[in-house]
Amino acid sequence: MLQRLARGEASVSELAKPHDMALPSLMEHLKKLEAAGLITSKKQGRIRTCELTSNAFLPAKDWLSEQSAIWEARLDHLDVYITNLMKERDN
Questions:
Q1: Are 38 and 52 in contact (CB under 8 A)?
Q2: What are the residues facing 50 on neighbouring strands?
Q3: Which of 24, 27, 50, 53 could cysteine-pair with 41, CB 3.0–4.6 Å?
Q4: Beta pairing partners, 10
């Protein structure tokens, strides 16, 4: 659903189409996404539409960037360690 909403707002019925899920279950899922701050919804008449919250994935992106930096540093240390082992083996 989030992938679909990344392309723009969609009605609940449009979001439900590709999923083999009862509408009440789908609505519960949407409520949880809204409570998490990932989506917003509005109702006009009988149609409820949902859209991604701007910067919804910014916290995840920031966390992934931090993790990437940590792992790059670890891999750099591993590279130095292996290089030193290879030098010792050759000597």
A1: yes
A2: 10, 41
A3: 50
A4: 50
